[in-house]
UniProtKB/TrEMBL annotation:
CDD domains: SufS_like. Its cofactor is pyridoxal 5'-phosphate. The lineage of its organism: Bacteria, Pseudomonadati, Pseudomonadota, Gammaproteobacteria, Cellvibrionales. It comes from the Bacteria. Catalyzes the removal of elemental sulfur and selenium atoms from L-cysteine, L-cystine, L-selenocysteine, and L-selenocystine to produce L-alanine. This is Cysteine desulfurase. One of its GO terms (biological process) is cysteine metabolic process. Pfam families: Aminotran_5. It comes from Umboniibacter marinipuniceus. It is an enzyme of class 2 (transferase). The keyword Transferase applies. It catalyses: (sulfur carrier)-H + L-cysteine = (sulfur carrier)-SH + L-alanine. Its EC number is 2.8.1.7.
Length: 406
């Protein structure tokens, strides 16, 4: 049974105060807080097991390697990867997307095109811009409507036999839109079976049921810190048949099978794409986070998240001067808004004084904000440990901020 109070008790940081007020943490799209088991996992690693993986001839190295590879398996099962070697440890979503964008840049010619949507985070836009600039390929942007949904008819018109890759967010960090990724993948592959399909899962991993095989994608990238794990570690999942000969992006230790003074041969997956000493503690703690999440009542948890967003929508509709950005039917976790009474940055400041943490600005999606005629918005983003009471506190805070700004 899903019990939000019990969940909250597992997150020590949620117990603290800010500016003398109980913390109301509504910046979960930026990063989630960590349950005690994840914090313990990091500490335990350094207090009892610290060692380098895959190389030592001693007990500690064996234990560290086992824990590190166990975490890979935990991630593989969580996202239903066909094989563990398809899980590549990265530093986060940004690195995962860059590995694919840099790799594909070598294969792009001026006749090719790359398709993204108008709602992408800079991490799923700029790497493709760079790949296109370098190769002369065309970057195509699928428009969105005023609610914040991708215009599927327009998207269909952008895909053709020269589309090399299409990359889209599973869930938008700025609008909360849940994109119909499965349908997008089907559309892409029906027009061009050899085109690759990448999903930016930075937000999807914490809110969606991610089954990479069922989604029909070739790559899925996410960050540990958005799914209750530590910062500095993330995952690039790729279909083995595609990743097996993917251009190596960093060279050095671990990623080689043999080396002479003049040349080297590459290792097999996953080492091939994992040069150097990895973030061992981070990977193990991410495994702990994912294990912890898998043990929760996932159905209850998703229902709770829907309750929060629907309640926030209802409350937002009653606030005079509040314009909501992103009202897609299929949406989760994000209430993005501006107030006619004042600038988003001032709203964020005034809420912070009341202990309420939100994010303001362009949310690393500057072109998207421009699409809505804005330089930025205030964004409250919810996680599984937030409550309806906290949403009430948010709206009390917004009313107070309005009074001070008027
Ligand atoms: N894509 C989306 C949709 C995101 O929300 C984020 C993080 N805000 C990223 C990519 C980049 O993630 P990271 O900074 O952890 O690499």
């Amino acid at each position: 049974m899903f019990n939000v109070d019990a969940i909250r008790r597992e997150f020590p940081l949620l117990q603290r105060e800010v500016h003398g007020k109980p913390l109301v943490y509504l910046d979960n799209a930026a990063t989630t807080q960590k349950p005690q088991c994840v914090i313990d996992s990091l500490t335990n690693y350094y207090t009892s097991m610290n060692s380098n993986v895959h190389r030592g001839a001693h007990c500690l190295a064996d234990e560290a390697t086992r824990a590190y590879e166990t975490a890979r398996g935990q991630v593989a099962r969580f996202i239903n990867a066909a094989r563990e070697c398809e899980i590549i440890w990265t530093s986060g979503t940004t690195e995962g997307i860059n590995i694919i964008a840099r790799g594909i840049a070598d294969r792009l010619a001026p006749r090719h095109n790359v398709v993204v949507s108008a709602m992408e985070h800079h991490a799923n836009l700029v790497p493709w811009q760079q790949a296109c600039h370098r190769s002369g390929a065309e970057l195509r942007i699928a428009p969105i409507n005023d609610a914040g949904d991708i215009d599927m008819t327009a998207l269909a018109e952008l895909i053709d036999s020269n589309t090399a890759i299409l990359s889209v967010a599973h869930i938008s960090n700025a609008l909360g839109t849940i994109n119909p990724v499965h349908k997008i993948g089907e559309m892409l592959k029906s027009v061009n079976p050899s085109a690759l399909f990448m999903i930016d899962g930075a937000q999807g991993i914490a809110h969606g049921d991610v089954d990479v095989q069922a989604l029909g994608c070739d790559f899925y990238a996410f960050s540990g810190h958005k799914v209750f794990g530590p910062t500095g570690v993330g995952v690039l999942w790729g279909r083995e048949s595609v990743l097996a000969d993917w251009p190596v992006w960093q060279t050095g230790g671990e990623m080689i099978s043999s080396v002479t003074y003049q040349s080297a041969e590459w290792n097999i997956l996953p080492s091939r794409l994992e040069a150097g000493t990895p973030n061992i503690a981070g990977a193990i703690a991410l495994g702990t986070a994912i294990n912890w999440l898998s043990q929760q009542d996932l159905e209850g948890l998703r229902a709770h998240e829907q309750t929060l967003i629907r309640y926030a929508d209802e409350r937002a509709a009653q606030v005079s001067g509040l314009r909501q950005i992103g009202t897609a039917e299929k949406r989760i976790g994000v209430l993005s808004f501006v107030l006619s009474q004042g600038h988003a940055a001032d709203v964020g400041f005034l809420l912070d004084r009341q202990g309420i943490a939100i994010r303001t600005g362009n949310h690393c999606a500057e072109p998207l904000m421009e699409r809505f005629g804005l330089s930025g918005s205030a964004r409250a983003s919810f996680s599984i440990y937030n409550t309806v009471d906290e949403i009430d506190l948010l709206f009390t805070g917004i009313e107070k901020a309005k009074m001070m700004l008027e």
